[in-house]
Amino acid sequence: MDAIILQILNGLDKGSAYALIALGLTLIFGTLGVVNFAHGALFMIGAFCSVTLSKLLNLSFETVDPTQKDFLGNPLKVKTPYVESWFGPEVGATIIDWSVPLAILFAIPIMLVIGYVMERGLIKHFYKRPHADQILVTFGLAIVLQEIVKFYFGANPIQTPAPDALSGVANLGGALGLQIAYPIWRLVYIGFSLLLIFGAFAFLQFTTFGMVVRAGMADRETVQLLGIDIDRRFTIMFGLAAAIAGLAGVMYGPINAPNYHMGMDFLVLSFVVVVVGGMGSLPGAVLAGFLLGILEAFASTTWATTTIPGINQIIIYLVAIIVLLTRPRGLMGKKGVMED
Questions:
Q1: Where are the domains of the chain?
Q2: CA angle, corner 217, sides to 104 and 264, nearest 5?
């Protein structure tokens, strides 16, 4: 039982990232009809937003500390972060320690602007082009973005540690007599992902803006005939989808150190998630993300990899084949989507 619960948690952890990226992909496809292969790059940029903020908060200046001496008896030069000089040593150290959660506020406007520029500068010119053209141009954009990040940040992963208060391990099974120790930050990531997913669905379901967007997804021409500028709202949704991917990347940094190719690592799997869930189906994308994450976690156990070597590398694709053979539209796909 301990092992089963642990693997479910591992699956929810990885599935949270799949679900968030797939949710953004589906929002873009459902509103604009664009297959965005640059969406993984947005996840990567979000992770590097936390790296950037951490570097900014650690900017420091040198001062001479007469209380500390080197081996020759000379006063030592020490580096003091600017935030510690501005807010005091304790508050400054706390701000630096919580740089990853604070990066959420830093990343939101950046990701919204990047999404807006991408949509207005490039994506809008491919609305009526074949999906193959959309895939090629957005895949090329993804390569450009990751090479820019590689140029400025280097090719090696950059550690972005979680706050000290959230970097330990929680004992989840003590009350039940089970031995289940799990990293606190991974639990935080699962909770954050669920909150973000709930927020996105609530925004679309209960706000006037979201209702208009859903109406536009169902019948764009009728909404335009009512005098509503649906294109502007779809552009805003592109920015929101970019922000969701970026926030997923921000919070994933302490789990997997950001590197320039992490977007590509998640992109292909996230597209498989979208296809399994059903193209254009938001609930399907989320359901498939968590489902495939859990299956991948169980396929990564020692028993599974010993019984069928390499099963952890192909389980998602095997499930995708089975689902598409038995239900070509995916788990919750709608008739007519991608069938032209």
A1: 2-57+98-326
A2: 45
